[in-house]
Amino acid sequence: MIRLEVRDLRLVSAIAEMGNLTRAGQHLHLTQSALSHQLADLEQRVGGKLFERSGRKLIATRLGEHLCSRAKLTLTQLREVERDLAEMANGREATLRIATECYTCYHWLPPVLDAFRERHPAIDVRIVPAATANPLRALIAGAIDLCIVSTRVRDRRVRVAPLFDDELVLVVSARHELASRRVVDAADLRGLRFLLYSTPDESHTFRDILAPAGVSPSQLSTLRLTEAIIELVKADMGVTILAQWAAKPYLESDALRAIPIDHPGVHRTWSALTRTSQSPPEYVSDFVGFLSTSIAAPPRTRPEFSLIRSVAKLSAKRRASGAP
Length: 324
Known about the structure:
Elements: H1 6-18, H2 21-28, H3 32-46, E1 51-54, E2 57-60, H4 62-89, E3 94-100, H5 109-119, E4 123-127, H6 135-141, E5 146-149, E6 158-173, E7 194-196, H7 204-210, E8 220-222, H8 226-234, E9 240-243, H9 244-247, E10 256-260, E11 267-275, H10 282-295, H11 303-321
Parallel strand pairs: 3-4, 3-5, 7-8
Antiparallel strand pairs: 1-2, 5-11, 6-9, 6-10, 6-11
Helix pairs in contact: 1-2, 1-4, 2-3, 5-10
C-alpha cells in the first residue's frame, strides 16, 4: 500500500503551481537537489511519473494531475484544522464554516448572527467564498459545515432541512423596455442579454428556463459577483434572473424593476444542508433553527405577484377570445 506524507502533497502542489523545481524549492525552502530526490522517491512509491519536462517547465501527467487535485483539497482541509486548533487554544470552542449556492450576498446573516452569538458566543462563524460554486461538494468533502442551496438534493451523505419557498424574478433597469410589464413569459426572454452568476453548463436558470425559451449561450455573460451584476443591470447593459430572496436588498432602488416570470421552473425551495456522517453539534442545529426563523420571511409567492400573474393571464385569454 502506498503511504503518502504531508510533505509529498506539498511537493506536488508546489511543483504544479510554480512550474519548475527551482521555484518550487524556493517556495518550500528546499534545494533543487533535495526536491529532485524527494520527487524521485515519491514517483517510485506511486509507481509512475507525476511530471513530464517540457523545456524548462514541468507538466503534470494524468497521474500527477489526480494527485495534485487531491493534494490541494487535503492541504486546504489541513490548514482549516490547524486554524481551528489555534482558535480553540485561544479561547474559541469551534468554527462553523458556511456557504450559499450561487449568490454572494449575505444580507440575511446579521440577524442570524445576533441570535446565534447570544447563545454561542465562543463559536466563530466563517463564510467560505471558495465553496460558493459547488457548496454540496465542499460540504461532503468537509471544507464547510453547512450550506444553503435551492437545488433539490438527494444524497444520503447530507441532511436536508427545508427553510422557505421562493421564486425567481426577472430584474431589469427602470429604463428597460420591459420595466413596465406586470409579468413576462418565455417568449419575452429570447432577445435579451443576460448577466448570470454561473456559466450555461452550470446554471439551472439557463438549463431550465432560458435554453427552452430559445436563449443561446452567446446571449449570456458570467459574473461571479451579484453586486457587479446588479450594477450592470442598473446601467441597462443587460438583465438578470435572481431569486426574490437574493434580489430583495437591491429592489429598494428606483433604478431597478423585478418582474414575475410565467414559468413553472421559477419556484424553488431553499434548504440548509449538513453532513449525516455524524450527529451535528448543538450549535449547528441552533444555527439552522435561527436561519428558519430569520430568513423564512419570503413567502412562496408574494401576494402582489400572484395577483399580477392572475390578471395578466385573464387579460391574455380575453384578447385571444376577442372580448373587450
